[in-house]
Specification:
The protein is of the alpha+beta class. The chain has 3 helices and 12 strands, in the order ααββββββββββββα. The chain has an 8-stranded antiparallel β-barrel with strand order 5-6-7-8-9-10-11-12. Strands 1-2-3-4 form a 4-stranded antiparallel beta sheet. A hairpin with a 2-residue loop joins strand 1 and strand 2. The radius of gyration is 20 Å and the shape is elongated.
Length: about 210
């Protein structure tokens, strides 16, 4: 295959990938479909989104909103004055072309903890490092450093968490909290770790025996 053909094939594949990404609906915002533009904007702000810009094309308007918690970007299409679609879009669409500005981190805490995963009844436990980043908007991002991978957790206020694993797209997952520990349910697996520092220390002492 010639270089020109290779470039053409790559361009087509990239365009298809970008289109697929941009058309993926944002599941936790679909209840706003059909809302008037004014009501929809109020709800977007209430749910922690900041309006970045609006572009108009023919009979529709496309507004871009940044999630204050995760920094990710969504696109809202408004037609005839009502929300017609709300989809994921590349984060650069809400920034200045270099991936977008980052949410301000006010402070950071690092501690050792016991973490692990459970699938098909098999439980694996590890000594992990946890990094809590407290953001200016009151939300938090936790980075868990497993022995063989790193996972970033973008916490939401409705028992939802964005799970970002190395080499994979961020997915939205449910989580539960009990006895100083979080359990995150994603892709048929359960990840867990002790977020309470005293509980983490107790579990590590028991794990090391």
């Amino acid at each position: 295959m010639t270089s020109i053909k290779k470039i053409a094939v790559f361009a087509v594949a990239l365009a298809a990938t970008t289109a697929l990404y941009a058309q993926h609906p944002v599941p936790y915002l679909q209840d706003l479909i059909g809302a008037s533009g004014r009501d929809g904007e109020a709800q977007m702000q209430h749910r922690g989104y900041t309006h970045v810009r609006t572009e108009k094309s023919d009979d529709s308007a496309y507004s871009f909103w940044k999630d204050n918690r995760s920094g990710h970007c969504v696109q809202v299409r408004t037609t005839d004055g009502r929300y017609a679609s709300i989809v994921h879009t590349p984060d650069a669409d809400c920034g200045d072309g270099d991936g977008g500005e980052q949410t301000t981190i006010e402070r950071e805490e690092t501690f050792e903890t016991l973490c692990g995963s459970a699938v098909d009844g098999k439980i694996q436990r590890y000594r992990c490092e946890a990094i809590d980043q407290f953001l200016a908007d009151g939300m938090k991002i936790t980075t868990l450093k497993f022995p063989d991978m790193e996972m970033k957790l973008h916490w939401h206020s409705d028992k939802k968490v964005g799970v970002e694993r190395e080499g994979m797209e961020t997915v939205q997952a449910n989580y539960s909290t009990a006895n100083g520990s979080h359990e995150i349910f994603v892709d048929g697996m359960t990840y867990f770790y002790a977020y309470d520092k005293e509980e983490a220390e107790r579990r590590l002492q028991k794990f090391n025996k």
